[in-house]
Design a protein that fits this description.
- About 45% of the residues lie in helices and about 15% in strands.
- The protein is of the alpha/beta class and about 270 residues long.
- The chain has a single domain, classed as Rossmann fold.
- It has an eight-stranded mixed sheet with strand order 3-4-2-5-1-6-7-8, with helices on both faces.
- The radius of gyration is 18 Å and the shape is globular.
- The model has no long low-confidence stretch (mean pLDDT about 90).
- The protein binds adenosine-5'-triphosphate and magnesium ion (MG).
- Adenosine-5'-triphosphate binds next to helix 1, strand 7 and helix 8.
Length: about 270
Amino acid sequence: MGHTITVYSTRGGSGKTITSLSIAKTLATRGYKTVLIDVDIEAPSLVHLIPPPGDPNSMRYWTEYLDNPDLNVEDVIFTCKINNLSIIYSNTPEMGKHFLQTKQRSWWESALKRELLAQQMLYKMGYDFIILDNQSGTSMNSVNNMILADTSVLVVRPANYGADATESFIDEMYRVLKGIKPRNDFYIWNQVIKTENEDEEKILRDFLERYNPRIKKSGLTLGCEIPFDRVLNLRLLTSPENYVFDLPEDVQKPIDQLIDTLLEKGGL
Ligand SMILES: Nc1ncnc2c1ncn2[C@@H]1O[C@H](COP(=O)(O)OP(=O)(O)OP(=O)(O)O)[C@@H](O)[C@H]1O
Ligand SMILES: [Mg+2]
């Protein structure tokens, strides 16, 4: 039986996409058959980050799979240059079709059923891990993906206003989710500043010590701290092929630590 992990945040831009990709790539490199799905259907990133093989106009997307019961998950899955790693893309929203259009509750209910079916099929196809690059906030979409997952990784940027906003609603969110099924949830600090002297380090450690208990009380386990990495950031200014699969060591190490904890705590 496989395992589904969603990478989630209450705020945008905290690093969900980069973290999802890093987790997926690391699991695949360790020999697990892994599929990464861009489920952020309102603002998909993977089409830009890892250009799909072939013509983007003639390929099929997750967004279409959710909408169209005639499509199978096999129709939307693509291999990439990393062994054991497949990717399912979402396409950039079209005006009127996916964008600026409020979907009925019933649409989201049937989308969740389509997702559950895809999950079953992917496990049958032998995937060990499904990684969902989620949308931030409390949309029907992000909640559907949280329900689908056995494990979520909440990505938090160390900034007092961001951490405050996160703390104020994760409590209810995770209480409801834990009532649906047993699950393991983690959080990570991402884009942690590299301090240059003791005073700066003290500010950072005081902040983390203040917020760690406030996040842990919602039942989340600290997975790792990922630094803000200049090299990773600079690579994102160049051609997509240059960065994604070869992580700088100071990012790879905490990701490995997170995965070790996930495997161990999840009993996998
Ligand atoms: N560890 C890191 N080191 C340096 N830069 C980072 C790191 N993590 C994320 N970034 C920067 O933050 C930006 C946003 O990251 P990412 O796209 O993964 O966030 P997101 O949470 O998926 O955003 P969205 O809410 O828009 O989906 C990246 O483009 C990158 O510039
Ligand atoms: Mg993203």
